[in-house]
Design a protein that fits this description.
Blueprint (H helix, E strand, L loop, with lengths): L1 H10 L3 H9 L6 H75 L3 H23 L1
Amino acid sequence: MRDRNMSSKRTGWDPSARSSLFSGTRRGGRGGDARDETEQLLESANNERIEHLSKKTEILRGISVDLNKELKEQNTLLDEMESDMSRTRETLGGTVTKLADVMSMKSNQHMCYLVLCIVGVFFLVNWFRKW
């Protein structure tokens, strides 16, 4: 036993240090204080990083909520636009059919009416633009 104590004094290593290191209990003295300070510094650094990450997470959550609202509004607008385009397509289809019927007639009288209507609309548009 005396040899063991002598060897530990020569090397500076204390055999009880290992047991206190792995048992979860701390030895008193300067080594324990430094370890406590290091743990406190690491803990405070971790807490700061956690706060920073939680703030960033909240920012990202707000952005995702805003994006969701914007996408829903745009989907509504796109649905309305699709229905408007369908109505316009149907109206133009009917107009083209009627125009094709007029063009298929051999009567010159219908062609004169068509040309006069187009010229009249052209003059009306120009008159309203200048006004």
